[in-house]
Amino acid sequence: MEGGNSLSAGPEGKKKKVTYFYDSDVGNYYYGQGHPMKPHRIRMTHSLLLHYNLDTKMEIRKPQQARMNDLCRFHADDYINFLKSVTPETQHEQTRQLKRFNVGEDCPVFDGLYSFCQTYAGGSVGGAVQLNHKHADIAINWAGGLHHAKKCEASGFCYVNDIVLAILELLKYHERVLYIDIDIHHGDGVEEAFYTTDRVMTVSFHKFGDYFPGTGDLRDVGHGTGKYYSLNVPLNDGIDDQSYQSLFKPIISKVMEVYQPGAVVLQCGADSLSGDRLGCFNLSIKGHAECVRYMRSFNVPLLLLGGGGYTIRNVARCWCYETAVAVGEELDDKMPYNEYYEYFGPDYTLHVTPSNMENQNKKNFLDNIRNKLLENLSKLRQVPSVQFQERPPETELADQEEDEDDDARPKGRLWNGELSESDPEEQKPKLHRNRESVYNTRRPSTSLIDQVTKRMKHEENVSTSHRPDEDSKEGGQAIENPSEIHEKEDSEAAYKALYQTVYPGPVENSSGYASVVAAAESSQGLGSKATVLVEGSAAKNITIVSTLEEAQPSISSSLICNESITCGQS
Predict the structure, then answer these.
(1) In this predicted model, what pLDDT tens digit does every residue of 292-304 receive, in sequence order?
(2) Same domain for 240 and 364?
(3) Does 113 fall in a domain?
(4) Cis peptide preceding 88, ω within 30 of 0
(5) 250 with 374: CB under 8 angstroms?
(6) Most buried by CB count within 10 Å: which residue of 76, 204, 237, 476?
(7) For range 425-446, the mean pLDDT
(8) Could you tell me where the Polar residues compositional bias lies (predicted)?
(9) Chain centroid to CA 459
């Protein structure tokens, strides 16, 4: 039996071998104007941890792109073929497939969509491979953690479920894998994939109620062989560090004791932080990272993944700090200068103060949840053991240039951790089709973006009930729409960074700054020309090579270039 004795938390200070996956191109992908999901946050995270010198404490690897056969170990062939073929230019010809695969508003078609999926999935599967071969104690892929994607459809900004793919990889070497999700949204895609097996236990801490995706009731515990191997921790608005840890530690401690996993996957969605644009929890960065610190202390192979997170400066802060926790380093709260320094004003610190929003999770509510989940864990039979007969073939992710031979792909697909030679439709789990009976909970009829829009309108109408966080105006003035304040401040930071791209150094010349802002705002998009005039300096002709929409400057690859520079080159 794997694990032998029960697992318990150990000394935190022990150094770990950490492998960190990062692709410098990931920040270039763009979901579209107005969309909350911004891959640029991964680039900001990477820049920040580099300037904290965390790169010297771990191995950095560029993920190899997952091939079609890698993605089809969980996803349906026709769905992956669709992601591979659809483009913004051709999507109008594929309206039936767009609807069939739930690709549209929440999950739009954008340039490089399939490559984006290959990249973030490759990082997560690559991390699992590193853990399997004992090349690392902890593997990190902040671009991963897209937990809503289903076998045959996109959902909640997620196209490919890299988490399921990584867990399937871990199951080649480990009898049992534990999945923990601290994103504010329920980890429905991962739970659904393993709902009927005891080889994967899923534990999700999430906001529950009239909130996307509407699943994750306390009563949803798994089905058949998987009964009691799905744990859901439904929470209310405003939960703080102390309340969160009063559930997280006793529940996870008991899980580790009774389940004894060979590996752990921790999805670190940062939308559970205080002040997130789409979130409604009140966790500090240290409180969020305490989950990472606690899981690290069990000395079990650990895969750390990203997830949600829509106030991107705080996402970068959080994942940089959690990288430091993984490698066992302490960081100065004063932030080092970096390419995105202006985003982190006015304090320029790593940590931010949580708001004073009401914690709607009362003690008796938390006690009832904890007691019920501990009761469910007591119903588990002896730790499940799997007899390995023939290990599935090793995963060898291909380089991007490598040709794929679709005809040579193995036709078997992993379901519930078992390799099958064929998977006729009538033998597959019916979880998605029978969701109403399996989950016993109401699913919101609107999309995630619809719910965000509804919430913003509500906040605008109730201007006195805003969240008074670090982005509030001084003087106690009511903010009608906190989201607009976030956008405005991020845009100002982006403009300052834009100015510094043309004129390196502090933003001191107001006329120059105004000229840069005017040039960007008046531009006609990519490739348009503008002239920046600054008193006392030579005029500079610039070309807008990346729009400034949604405060998403591709600064490190030249947001703007003067005429003598080729974009992306020095």
Answers:
(1) 999 999 999 999 9
(2) yes
(3) yes
(4) no
(5) yes
(6) 204
(7) 38
(8) 437-450
(9) 25
Q: Indicate whether 400 pLDDT > 60.
A: no
Residue 401: exposure state from Cβ atoms within 10 A (0-12, 13-18, ≥19): exposed
Instruction: Identify the H or E element spanning 139.
Output: strand 138-141
Sheet holding 529-532, edge to edge: 529-532, 540-544, 560-562
> How far is Cα of residue 569 from the mean position of the Cα atoms in its chain?
30
Q: Interior CA angle at 20 toward 348 and 121, to 5°?
A: 110
User: Cβ neighbours of residue 396 under 8 Å, at least 6 residues apart?
Assistant: none
Domain end (from 378, 405, 423): 378
Local confidence band at 482 (pLDDT 50, 70, 90 cut-offs): very low
Query: What one-character DSSP code corresponds to residue 397?
Result: P
Q: Are residues 352 and 489 in the same domain?
A: no
Residue 348, sorted as left (phi over 0), alpha (psi -120 to 50) or beta, turns out to be: left
pLDDT confidence bin for 503, thresholds 50/70/90: low
Distance CA 479, CA 484 (A): 9
pLDDT computed for residue 545 by the predictor: 43
pLDDT tens digits for range 27-79: 999 999 999 999 999 999 999 999 999 999 999 999 999 999 999 999 999 99
Please give the model's pTM, rounded to 2 decimal places: 0.75
pLDDT of residue 384: 72
Question: Which of 163-172, 249-258, 482-491, 499-508 shows the lowest mean pLDDT across its residues?
Answer: 482-491
Residue of 35, 46, 147, 148 marked catalytic: 148
DSSP code string of 148-180: T--SS--BTTBSS-HHHHHHHHHTTT-S-EEEE
**Domains identified in the chain, total number:** 2
- Residue 210 is predicted with a pLDDT of 93
Residue 361's pLDDT band (boundaries 50, 70, 90)? Answer: very high
Distances (CA, A) of 118 to 159, 165, 168, 535: 10, 12, 16, 48
The CA distance from 404 to 69, in Å, is: 9
Residues 337 and 486 in one domain: no
What does the block give as tokens for 229?
């191997």
Sole residue written with tokens 């605008």 = 460
Is residue 374, in this structure, part of any structural domain at all?
yes
- What is the model's pLDDT at position 154? 98
Report the C-alpha gap between 206 and 191 in whole angstroms. 13
Q: Which domain holds residue 553?
A: 482-562
User: Would residue 148 show up in a list of annotated catalytic residues for this protein?
Assistant: yes
d(CA 516, CA 256): 55
User: pLDDT value at position 514?
Assistant: 60
Span of 349-353, 360-364, 399-403 with lowest mean pLDDT: 399-403
Residue 256 and residue 371 share a domain: yes
Give the number of other Cβ atoms within 10 Å of residue 263's Cβ. Answer: 25
Q: Using the structure block, give the residue that is written with the tokens 């010198």.
A: 53
State which of 318, 343, 378 marks the end of a domain.
378
Instruction: For residues 347 and 216, state if they share a domain.
Output: yes
| Residues contacting 207, CB < 8 A, separation 6+ | 184, 185, 234, 235, 236, 237, 279, 280, 281
Tell me, what's the pLDDT at 347?
94
Question: Residue 241 is part of a domain; what is its CATH number?
Answer: 3.40.800.20
Contact 562, 542 (CB under 8 A): yes
Please indicate, yes or no, if residue 5 is contained in any of the structural domains: no
Does residue 407 lie within any of the structural domains?
Answer: no
Same domain, yes or no, for 372 and 515? no
